[in-house]
Specification:
This protein is of the alpha+beta class and 476 residues long. It folds into 3 domains: 197 residues, no CATH class; 56 residues, no CATH class; 135 residues, Cytochrome Bc1 Complex, Chain D, domain 2. The chain contains 12 helices and 15 strands. Strands 5-6-7 form a 3-stranded antiparallel beta sheet, covered by helices on one side. A two-stranded antiparallel ribbon has the order 1-2. A two-stranded antiparallel ribbon has the order 3-4. A hairpin with a 2-residue loop joins strand 5 and strand 6. Helix 2 crosses helix 7.
Length: 476
Amino acid sequence: MRKVLFSSAIFLSLSGTIVLADEDRPGAAPYPWDETVVRELDFDTTASRGPDATQDLIDLGQRLFEGKFTVKEGAGRPEATQAIVPTKRRRPSQTMFQRMAGLDANACSSCHNVPFSGGAGDFTANVFVSEGFESADFDTSDPQFSNERGTNSMFGAGLIELLAREMTADLRAQRSEALKKARADGAPVTQALETKGVPFGKLIAHPDGSLDVSGVEGIDHDLTLRPFSQKGVFASLRQFTVNAMNQHHGMEAEERFGTQWTGTADFDGDEVEDELSRGQISALVAWQATLPAPGRKKDLPAVWQDAAAKGEELFARTGCTECHRHSLPLDSLTFLDPGPYEGAGTLRPTDVKTPIAIDFSRFDWVKALPRDEKGRVLVPLFGDLKRHRIADAARDTLGNELLSQRFVDRDVFLTAELWGIGSTAPYGHRGDLTTLDEVIEAHGGEATEARKTYSALDEGDKQSIIAFLRSLEITQ
């Protein structure tokens, strides 16, 4: 069996053009109307080229993100489930597409397309997610077995991951210092956890090296920020991508579903081996990571500009910026793939000769971002990369969330980054809230006081806040 439809003689030119050699298709030159999406890309060769490979990665990543996968290259998973951990079905599936258990899309851009490819999705693009272990073959939207979710925008995702990496490193360094001091002093040490101005509770380090993490808030106890998915369960774009390619398309990444982990090169039983290589996943990561950060609407009428300016002040005064922080400072603009906090079943830095490095400082959209007095980029995400309890008995906005996802409580969600929100209606984790006013009024839990303050505003002030939020848009 072949790794992909075409052989490794296919390569990318320095200009990013796909080059196909005559021998790539036995007996004939490739057809210009070929329907397949996948093209070969060797990870180590690409990494060794350094910055010269960046545009090639981005070009192939866009092809993989927007292309509609075919069965010839591995679409479908008749003997495998959508579970994060490779899991066999109890019985092979004869169904190619199935809205609940998947496959549920032909291409990544089938769902991520509002307002452009890589963006969010309408309610029609909702998916159903499950832990996939206790109910590996679920084919129901019953909330006991799955949670309905809307499509998140990927614009600015590379900056989000870079922030999360730095914040994780900060928090872990604070933990190490507390343990070191506890051993030196022979007494417990209470350490407040805070990074980039965002508090994450506290921990207690004991002289014997043990930790009391009961006071840690908004993050897993291993102190790893996981900024992707609405529950905050994926630490990297690479983890997110490997999982999504299997769940939504039945395209299995070699690094998780290949022989090293499962004992076979065709875990899903569709007669296509090693469907996505390490290099191809890196191309997908590169394209998503370099999607520009959302910005502000330009050329607004004066009445909108005035309302938005007032609304931004009111947004802060209501307490919304306690979670939806205007910006977080970023020290490094070098994006390494794989990253330092990859999980099991995902390529790790120790698995490669050298990681692929993308220098974000080369992009014009990064150059346009504001800097602080230390020269750090201020990422205007309107978020904090922290989980919060945002529902309560009085205002349970979660509806069908009966199933926790990756052990995150059902009423706890990652703070949604609001940059670009003016381009991504409808709202809420299920995309069933049609206006910004609705989604603000749906807040409960830790956001109760801010919501009450908003509710008490007169209609003009509310509309000013809406004008401000509607001015935050995704641009190409």
